[in-house]
Recover the amino acids of this structure.
């Protein structure tokens, strides 16, 4: 665990030093928090998903987030071509299969995107189960099963597609198909603010630009969860603003030492 904590510290340090440009194909509802959160953490956002522009602009990015959140016509047309360009250029990219299961369009698209080989997949337990071919059946963006119930599905996806899979919940599980770590940090208020999951996907992309996939994914989760604990005493409205300040203020060594980790 000492080596992993050192990796977390170094990944956050490297991310802030490089200030990677993260191209986010994400929903309109959460774009403001994603953009502000990336800037506060030390990265730079570029958020567009249109078919005419996104596949071109991703060529200058350091990493890509593909989030199926509030999927509109632009996203349906632009996300797959953009991911194809990222894959062809070997850019690290994150698939966030928000609300798949019941929704037919986004569920099919999530499987098509997974086939392109994302560097990391980040979702709740229901989404991960659905992505693995099971009956996840979440309620919109909310999971109806516990993260532990998706542990085998996460390992299967990671092993089959050569990626890291992060399953979010009260205790996050992150696996590369071999190693699995649990992150037992974070304020419950994260679940009461729209877009914190999307922000975590974007932070994961930012860290993938500078660190190996497993360490990068754990580092991003550690950064957001430790920052959230700094402002856990606040209500959702104040928490949203204060979370940005915390992402800016928290030091890499504080994240590495403060995050609660266990191997699983």
């Amino acid at each position: 665990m000492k080596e992993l904590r050192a990796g977390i510290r170094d990944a956050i340090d490297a991310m802030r030093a490089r200030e990677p440009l993260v191209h986010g194909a994400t929903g309109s509802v959460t774009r403001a928090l994603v953009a502000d959160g990336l800037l506060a953490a030390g990265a730079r956002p570029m958020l567009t998903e249109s078919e005419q522009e996104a596949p071109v602009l991703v060529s200058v990015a350091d990493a890509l987030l593909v989030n199926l959140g509030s999927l509109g016509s632009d996203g349906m047309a632009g996300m797959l071509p953009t991911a194809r360009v990222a894959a062809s250029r070997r850019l690290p990219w994150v698939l966030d299969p928000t609300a798949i299961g019941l929704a037919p369009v986004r569920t099919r698209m999530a499987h098509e995107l997974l086939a392109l080989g994302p560097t990391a997949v980040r979702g709740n337990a229901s989404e991960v189960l659905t992505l693995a071919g099971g009956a996840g059946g979440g309620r919109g963006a909310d999971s109806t099963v516990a993260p532990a119930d998706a542990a085998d599905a996460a390992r299967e996806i990671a092993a089959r597609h050569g990626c890291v899979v992060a399953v979010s919940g009260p205790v996050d599980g992150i696996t590369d198909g071999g190693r699995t770590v649990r992150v037992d940090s974070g304020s419950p208020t994260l679940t009461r603010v729209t877009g914190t999951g999307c922000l975590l996907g974007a932070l994961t992309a930012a860290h993938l630009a500078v660190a190996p996939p497993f360490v990068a994914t754990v580092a991003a989760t550690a950064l957001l969860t430790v920052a959230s604990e700094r402002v856990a005493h606040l209500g959702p409205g104040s928490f949203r603003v204060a979370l940005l300040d915390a992402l800016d203020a928290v030091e890499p060594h504080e994240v590495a030492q403060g995050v609660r980790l266990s191997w699983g």
The radius of gyration is 16 Å. Residues 213-230 form the longest helix (18 residues).
